[in-house]
Structures are given as C-alpha cells and as structure tokens.
C-alpha cells in the first residue's frame, strides 16, 4: 500500500502559482536519477512513492540539479519529501543555492516524528538569479531513509529583454565510466533573450573529453531556439576527471559561458563476473553441536559463548538452495543478551555490574544481496545510527547448506562495532538460517577487538525478520564485490614463508615476537608479491574470516590519509603544501594572536607549526585532559577547529621543532578539504573525490574501508588524523603503494615524488625532524626509525604508527611487516632483523 499523502490547507495555498508561469524543470523520478548529479548512497524506490518511483537517499546521499533561471522572476520550487525510521539526529533536507553551490539555503527538512512514510509537500519562492542549484540530501544513519518526489521549478519570463541571453547548464556529470570506453552527453544551448544570439565557438579544454558533434559553431539563435553540442567522455585512467566546455557568444552578460564536465574513470568489473560465485561442492553432512538449527529456530535465546568455528564455513558445506536479497531486521536487540557480557579491560570504567546500553548491539535493519555463496551488505563502511555508543560496520559473509537445517540455508556475517566518535573496533560474528520468506533468530557474539582501553565479550541471539525485495543496483554490488576479491594480493599462511624460502633459516618465532600474543589482532609479511598472514586469534578460537577482520587505523591515518592526500594535491597543484594556512583555513587568519602566520600544510603535516605548550617530551601536549575534552570528545567541526587553532601559543619558528598534535593533522585536513572545494567545486570532498577516487579505488581497497570518521554535523569534516578502518589486504596495498611502488598505480604517478622522497627519508637535502623518542624521526606524517643493521650500515626505516600498538613497517629491502594490536606495544626490532634474511638491507 502506498503511504498517505499529507496535504494541509496551508500547503494548498503555497502550491498556487501564477497562471503565466513557465515550467522550467519537472521530475517525478519515474525514469530514475538521470536528470540529477548523484553522490553517495542514492537510488530510486518503488515502495514509498506517490506514483511510479521516488528518489531514495540515505546516510550522506544527495542529488543535485543546476537550472538556468536567468531572465526569469517569481521563481517557485515545489517538491514533496518523505522519511522513514529517522532518529533525533537524522534529517532529510531540501535546500537551494544561487551562487553555484558555494553556499546553500535550507527550504525544509524532515526529522524524527515526520518519518512514517507520509509525503510532506513544500513550495518556496527563490530570489531572482542567473542560476539555481537544487539539492536534496540525507543526513541519516544506515537504517534511515529519505524520499523525494515531484520536483518542479516554475517562473515568469521577464518582459522587455532587448539583449541576447545564453541558456546552458553549468555542469554535466557523466558518472562512472569504464576506462577506455566511451559515453556521450548532448548539451543544449538556447537563447532566452529577445535579440539574436550568435555562438562564435564551442570548445572543450581538458583531457578525457572531446566534442564529437557541434551544431552551435557560428549559429545564430532567435528567441527561444536552441542548438546542441555532444561531448564524449573516454577516461584513460581511473579517478575523477574534469574539463570545461566554453561557449563564446555575443551575450553581453555572459560572453564566455562555461559548463563544468565531470566523471569518474573506473576499472571494468564485469569481465570475470559469474552469477554463481564460488559454488560449494560439499555433501552437506556437517556435524554441529553449537548454533544448531533447533537452537536458532527455538523461542529460547542462545545463552552461551560459542567457539568461532561454529560460525565458519564447514568443509562439507553444500550449495545453498535459497537466495537472500532484501532486508534483515533484528527485533529489539537492546533487550537481548542481558547478563551475557564479560569485561576483560575497562580503563575508563564504562560498564559496571548492571545492565548498560554498551552491553547490547544497536538496532539492525540492513539490506543484503547474495552472489552465489557470498552474502554482501548493501550499506558498507561506518553505519551511523541512534545508539549512544556503537555503530556497525558490516562485511560480506558466506551462505551454505547443511543437511540438518531442515531444508533451510545458513548464513554467517562478520561485523564490527566501532565506538561512536572514536576508532576502537570490536569484532563480531552473526549466524542465522533462512528460506525464501523467513529467517531464524540471529545469533551474535563479539570475542575480539583492537582497543587498548575497553575489551569484552558480548553474546546472545535476537529474533529477526526477513523482508525479501529487489535491491537497487544489486548487479553492480555483486560485480564490485567480485572485483575486490579478484584484486586481493595473493595470501598464504605465514608458515609458508619458511617453506617458500627454505635455505635462509627463518625463525618464525621472531616474527611478531614484540607483541603479547593474546593482544595481537593480526600480523603479516609481504614479500615478492605474496602476503604471508598469521592466523587471526580471538578469545574463542581462530577467526574464521580473517580476510574480513576489520581493524582500526588510529594514527596510521595521518600517513594513509592526511599525508597521502596532501602529496596527491601537491602533484595536481604544485606549491599547495607550501601555501600559507591563513589563505586555506580562514579561521587561522582570524586568530587574534597571529600564531598561524607563516605556517603551511607542510608544517602541520610535520607537526612543526611552532605552536605548542610543552616541549619536554614530543608527546606531552597530546596526552592532556584538555585535549580529550576540547578536541577528541567533541562532535562538531567548528568546535574541533576552534580548539585546534587556539589551544597552542607560538613558541618557536615553524618547521623547527616536532611536537605531536593530532590537532595539527586536523588543520591540515581542513586545509586540504577547503583547497579541494576551491579547485573542483563546493560539492567535492577531499576524501571521497581525491583520496578514494584517485588512489584507493585503483588500488583495489575494500568498499568497507572507503569511509572515514567525520564530524557529526552538516559539515561532515573528515578527521584526517584517525578514524579509518582497514582489512589486512588494504594495509598491504597501502604500504606497498607508498614504499615499493613510490606513489604510482598502474604506471601513473599519483603522489608528488619530491614530497614522497621526504616522507620516505630518502631526500638528503631535507633532514627529518628528531623526536624525543630514541632514534625516531618524523616527516610529512611519516615516522622513521634509525637502525644499525647486522652488516654495520645505518638505515632509516619508514613506518606508520597508530595508538595502542599498530605498526605498518616498510623495510628498505622490499619487505613490508605490519601488525595490529592493543597492548601499547611498539616493538619490531627482532622482527626486522629476522626479515633481513629475505633480502639485504644495505647494498
């Protein structure tokens, strides 16, 4: 049944428009989103509609449309919004811009209490301008929904216009396009003036775009007539591609009209796609004494902590007989598992003996698609929600059949809880049985984590519902999943490093020996194209899906995000890293003390801004209580930025002294974000459109990793200095890209070579900054350790470092060693010596 249509008397009055108005734009979305530029989690929906289809937005999804309104007045925008399952911090927002998207004015918003699926109409008069940008966006969690229908723009043509007036869209988005393939867009050029408009020329500047049809050159257009140009987009490499279409004419107000062309080059994910992905050939005869069919389908909750192998894909697993596509919803998980929680470490005394929201998993309502024997969550990355402490990250799982499951199929899903506004990750597993219409209880448990200060077990089961439905873009989701699986670096057991290199006398006990075993989440070695990974241990046995074990970045993000994206911007726009911060971050220019004069992004990345309080230790400022309450615990961008700018007074010359400040990295990230918007446009984002589009997607980074912690406000500023999550394959790819591949992907140099050489401590003309930690240095967001190796030579080893015990070490012999742990242990000297047997450090 379609939702009711809420229409008040006031709305009826607002809907009245002058009879002489022209309709400049109308979209009911029944033909999809082709008339809009879409960002993030967007699609169409056929259930919450007025008629046909509606635009469907969630998380930070948005759609934009630019409309030329020059020569018109009495501009009226009409639309209807609906929402479902919004919480107090969730909104569905409609807004407009008259300055090409540099700033927006809100027209209306729906929030909690307006989320029953009813449509709310709105009508608003816009001030006269030459251009109008409409934007509808979601600011929600992963289980909350926004819908848009029947958008129209009407206006009254101005009388007496005696000059020609060119009318052309200000932007054309070509979307994702497979590398070395072509797509075309026809762009219409019209004359809304009373005198004839002469188009002198139409030209495209920029690579990857070309004019293939031009009926406008030399053409004279009378009033209300038009011509067309056709632009072809053919990307040759991956990433964001932009260009400009310029139209020279005799319009006295706009003689060189410009159209911004944008699109993304993407790898071809379809060539090796198979519908029945990784079929199973087992007999189905599985001996099971935990999480049996009868337990999962009982009215009694699971009350024990199972071994991890109960969630594993059995060796005799058979091909599933059902296809899961739709939404899985847990019923009242906040009341499940009471008393089934064991603390192992609670430094800040989060939980006591009584019940607490931290002891329960959050609300869960997420969609999945099945590709053969793989179950793929639609909502990847950090799923914001209403729980006060936890947010989900979902991973692809597996589906199979066991003969004892009464004809049902069985699924297991790895998941994680990430602490709200923080980076601790607690790893879990879910399991259930299902058929084409229904699902059993969902058993869940958490028995491992990467978190220095909060470690626990949580387990139980909860009733659930399965709502089968066709998932929009399901084929693309399946193709992307399979493409990632194919892109993974060849992985072998760590023990095979010995058998692959039998003559060098490797002692495996020395690899990873610097970390207490029960606090090691994952570790591994990359050498000669192979990723050798140890088993991922938990308190309940070996994790059955180690390749899908989600781990926090903490401060490795300073290198992997802030430093890397800055070097990317330097390659794109030489001189960026040495630009004054006061021209990039206006708040620094307004600092009353003038502490940010002569400070650059390079200084901020070096944590050598000259602004600090304590210098007895490089880490003294970072550990203060004021830093926690003023920066780390606050939710909004402006509060974080104001603290970062005002906290530390000028005490030394910028570039002369290293004092560790995550706040400096935040300022560098804000600078990169502002600069990206100034160069590419206000709708672009330094994380999504530079780091991910240009580097991470071509590298084959996992879809769930292409997300970052952001401030909890409309700004959504990426943290920069922490807040990423990785799989082990991501860690190897990112470390290899930075060191072995020298910032190049598929032969294309993406990072500025000079700045990367400084980060890798290879530039003899740029001395790294010493720290108060023995033999450790810092440059361009990279740590370095000076080591004298057995052969007697000195080497500088670059590495990324993260809170609690996270190290990505790029050894100078082409070996990468990484570990993720949570006992505050940062010791890999013995491992480095052992891995020197694989190849010499000095030549």
From TrEMBL:
Residues 169-263 form the HYDIN/VesB/CFA65-like Ig-like domain. It comes from the Bacteria. Gene3D superfamilies: DD-peptidase/beta-lactamase superfamily, Immunoglobulins. Pfam families: HYDIN_VesB_CFA65-like_Ig (PF22544). Residues 1-21 form the signal peptide. GO terms for cellular component: cytoplasm. The keyword Signal applies. Its main location: other. It is found in: Cell projection, Cilium; Cytoplasm. Keywords: Cell projection, Cilium, Cytoplasm, Signal. This is HYDIN/VesB/CFA65-like Ig-like domain-containing protein. It comes from Vibrio thalassae. The lineage of its organism: Bacteria, Pseudomonadati, Pseudomonadota, Gammaproteobacteria, Vibrionales.
């Amino acid at each position: 049944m379609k939702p009711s249509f809420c229409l008040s008397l006031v709305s009826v009055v607002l809907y009245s428009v002058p009879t002489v108005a022209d309709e400049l734009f109308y979209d009911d979305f029944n033909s999809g989103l082709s008339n809009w530029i879409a960002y993030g989690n967007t699609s169409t929906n056929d259930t919450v509609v007025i008629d046909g289809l509606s635009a469907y937005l969630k998380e930070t999804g948005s759609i934009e449309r630019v409309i030329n309104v020059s020569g018109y007045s009495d501009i009226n925008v009409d639309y209807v919004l609906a929402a479902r399952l919004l919480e107090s911090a969730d909104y569905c927002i409609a807004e407009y811009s008259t300055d090409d998207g540099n700033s927006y004015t809100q027209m209306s918003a729906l929030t909690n209490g307006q989320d029953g699926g009813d449509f709310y109409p709105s009508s608003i008069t816009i001030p006269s301008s030459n251009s109008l940008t409409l934007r509808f966006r979601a600011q929600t969690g992963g289980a909350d929904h926004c819908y848009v229908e029947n958008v129209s723009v009407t206006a009254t043509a101005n009388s007496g216009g005696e000059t020609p007036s060119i009318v052309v869209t200000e932007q054309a988005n070509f979307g994702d396009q497979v590398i070395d393939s072509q797509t075309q867009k026809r762009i219409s050029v019209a004359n809304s003036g009373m005198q004839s408009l002469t188009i002198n020329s139409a030209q495209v500047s920029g690579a990857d775009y070309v004019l293939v049809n031009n009926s406008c050159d030399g053409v004279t257009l009378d009033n209300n007539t038009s011509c067309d140009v056709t632009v072809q987009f053919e990307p040759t490499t991956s990433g964001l591609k932009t260009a400009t279409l310029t139209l020279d004419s005799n319009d006295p107000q706009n003689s060189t009209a410009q159209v911004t062309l944008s699109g993304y080059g993407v790898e071809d994910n379809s060539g090796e796609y198979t519908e029945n992905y990784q079929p199973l050939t087992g007999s189905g005869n599985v001996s099971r004494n935990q999480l049996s069919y009868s337990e999962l389908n009982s009215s009694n909750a699971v009350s024990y902590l199972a071994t991890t192998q109960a969630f594993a894909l059995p060796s005799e697993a058979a091909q599933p007989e059902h296809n899961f596509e739709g939404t899985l919803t847990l019923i009242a998980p906040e009341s499940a598992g009471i008393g089934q929680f064991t603390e192992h470490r609670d430094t800040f005394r989060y939980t006591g003996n009584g019940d607490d929201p931290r002891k329960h998993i959050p609300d869960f309502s997420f969609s999945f698609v099945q590709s053969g024997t793989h179950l793929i969550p639609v909502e990847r990355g950090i799923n914001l929600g209403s729980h006060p402490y936890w947010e989900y990250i979902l991973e692809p799982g597996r589906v199979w059949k066991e003969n004892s499951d009464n004809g049902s199929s069985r699924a297991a899903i790895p998941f994680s809880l990430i602490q709200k506004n923080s980076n601790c990750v607690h790893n879990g597993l879910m399991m259930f049985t299902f058929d084409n219409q229904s699902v059993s209880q969902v058993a869940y448990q958490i028995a491992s984590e990467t978190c220095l200060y909060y470690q626990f077990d949580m387990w139980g089961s909860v009733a659930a519902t399965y709502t089968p439905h066709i998932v929009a873009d399901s084929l693309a989701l399946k193709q992307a999943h399979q493409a990632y699986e194919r892109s993974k670096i060849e992985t072998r057991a760590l023990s095979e490093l010995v058998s692959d290199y039998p003559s060098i006398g490797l002692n495996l006990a020395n690899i990873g020996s610097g970390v207490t075993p029960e606090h090691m989440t994952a570790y591994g070695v990359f050498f000669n194209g192979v990723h050798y990974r140890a088993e991922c241990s938990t308190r309940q046995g070996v994790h059955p899906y180690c390749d899908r074990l989600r781990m926090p970045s903490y401060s490795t993000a300073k290198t992997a995000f802030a430093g890397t994206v800055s070097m990317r911007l330097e390659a794109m726009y030489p001189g960026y890293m040495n630009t004054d911060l006061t021209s990039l971050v206006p708040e620094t220019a307004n600092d009353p003390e003038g502490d940010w004069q002569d400070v650059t992004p390079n200084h901020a990345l070096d944590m050598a801004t000259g602004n600090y309080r304590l210098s007895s230790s490089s880490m003294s400022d970072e550990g203060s209580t004021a830093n926690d309450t003023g920066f780390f615990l606050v939710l909004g961008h402006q509060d974080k930025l104001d603290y970062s700018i005002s906290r530390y007074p000028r005490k030394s010359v910028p570039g002369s002294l290293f004092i560790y400040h995550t706040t400096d990295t935040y300022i560098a990230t804000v600078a990169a974000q502002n600069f990206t918007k100034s160069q590419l446009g206000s709708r672009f984002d330094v994380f999504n459109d530079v780091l991910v589009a240009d580097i991470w997607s071509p590298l084959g980074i996992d879809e769930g990793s292409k997300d970052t912690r952001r401030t909890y406000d409309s700004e959504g500023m990426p943290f920069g200095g922490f807040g990423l999550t990785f799989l082990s394959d991501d860690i190897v790819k990112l470390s290899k890209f930075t060191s072995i591949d020298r910032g190049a992907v598929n032969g294309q140099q993406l990072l500025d070579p000079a700045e990367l050489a400084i980060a890798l401590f290879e530039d003899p003309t740029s001395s790294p900054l010493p720290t108060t930690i023995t033999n450790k240095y810092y440059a361009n967001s990279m740590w370095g350790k000076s080591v004298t190796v057995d052969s007697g030579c000195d080497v500088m080893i670059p590495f990324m470092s993260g809170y609690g015990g996270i190290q990505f070490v790029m050894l100078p012999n082409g070996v990468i060693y990484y570990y993720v742990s949570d006992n505050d242990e940062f010791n890999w000297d013995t491992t480095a010596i052992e891995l020197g047997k694989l190849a010499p450090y000095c030549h």
